[in-house]
Amino acid sequence: MKQSLLFSTAMVVFLFMWAQIATAQQAVRAIFSASTHTPTISVPFTLTLTVEAPQNATIIFPDFPTDWGAFTIIEVGELTKTIENDRAIYEQSLTVIAWTAGDIFTPDTFVEFAIEETGEAGMTAVQTAFFTISSTLDPEDTAIRPLKPAVSLFYISPLAILLITSGTIASGYYLRKRWQMRQLAISTHASSSSMMTPAQHVLARLRQLDPNRMSPFNLYPLVADELRHYLQSRLGIDAPEMTTTELMENLETEERLSSLRQAELERLLQQSDLVKFARIQPRPQTSQKLINAATQWVKNTEEELLHSEMQEDENITS
User: Fold this and answer.
1) Strands 80-84 and 110-115: what pairing?
2) Distance CA 304, CA 264 (A)
3) Per-residue DSSP letters for the chain?
4) CA–CA separation, 208 and 224 (whole Å)
5) How far apart (Å, rounded) are the C-alpha atoms in residues 113 and 124?
6) Among 77, 71, 75, 76, which Cα is nearest to 42's?
7) What are residue 132's phi and psi, to 5 degrees?
8) How far apart are CA 157 and CA 172, in angstroms?
9) What global pTM score does this model have?
């Protein structure tokens, strides 16, 4: 009697649990469906996960990895929800590629759920989908094909290569000759310049100034700069960095130039300063006169310096 009672109680408990499981499984259903059941290997196709649940149920969809079993997921679509007969239908599309030929199933996938009314919660397995993946190879085709596609090479005619090579060599020879000639001209000019005295150098620079092509505002400062560079080279004075007043005070202190040459130099520099700083427009004829006066001043100054140096040498010798 006791054994029958225990057996009856166990059966009731089992039936109750089976009913709960069956109810939960019927409450939430999930299934995979595909746009085709015979996809081709390496060709994308669409796989759709559909979940049907009570309207007030909470559904948690799985996170799909890129490498998903025998498939590669290349895109996960947006989750959609519709209501039909107090039931919520969720759908999410997956764009997948199969890389294995033959018969394959979708991997085991589970959907989590929670039903507020009954307090039920758990997971339900998604009904798998079966596929027969066909290969892109045709077993009836016996033609031999390479493992990799042929490499397309850019063809150039040998005659074109010869012409291009000849032109490159000729151009290189011509450019090298031009470079050598330019370097020779530069070295010749440098050597000739180094052999010139400071007076000869400044006189050559003054002869290159053309009043007809140069603005007085450019010419007057250049004349003053040439005279300052001459004093720097000839007397060792840092004339280019001095103002006119500072330079004249230095020459007066050193007594290297006569009073007449100092007065002439001061007039030339003051004329240049008026044009350069005060922006006074000189008459057209005065530009050439300034060049002539500067040229004559250099010649006279050089003559005086040479005479003074000769006298000093004679005094030392005697």
Assistant:
1) unpaired
2) 14
3) -HHHHHHHHHHHHHHHHHHHHHHHHHHSEEEEEES-SSPBTT--EEEEEEEEEETTEEEEPPPPPSEETTEEEEEEPPPEEEEETTEEEEEEEEEEEE-S-EEEEPPP-EEEEEETTTTEEEEEEPBP-EEEEBPSS-TT------SSPPPPPPP--HHHHHHHHHHHHHHHHHHHHHHHHHHHHHHHHHHHHHHS-HHHHHHHHHHT--TTTS-HHHHHHHHHHHHHHHHHHHH---GGGS-HHHHHHHHHHHT-S-HHHHHHHHHHHHHHHHHHTS-----TTHHHHHHHHHHHHHHHHHHHHHHHHHHHHHHHH-
4) 14
5) 8
6) 71
7) -115, 105
8) 23
9) 0.41
| pLDDT tens-place string over residues 78-122 | 999 898 888 899 999 999 988 888 888 899 999 998 887 777 888
| Residue 29 structure tokens | 């259903």
Structural domains present in the chain: 26-133 (2.60.40.740), 198-308 (no CATH)
Radius of gyration of the chain (CA): 52
Structure tokens at 157: 């005619």
Residues forming beta bridges with residue 125, ordered by sequence position: 110
pLDDT one-digit tens code per residue, 128-161? 888 888 776 666 666 665 556 666 677 788 888 8
Residues 81 and 51 sit within 8 Å (Cβ to Cβ): no
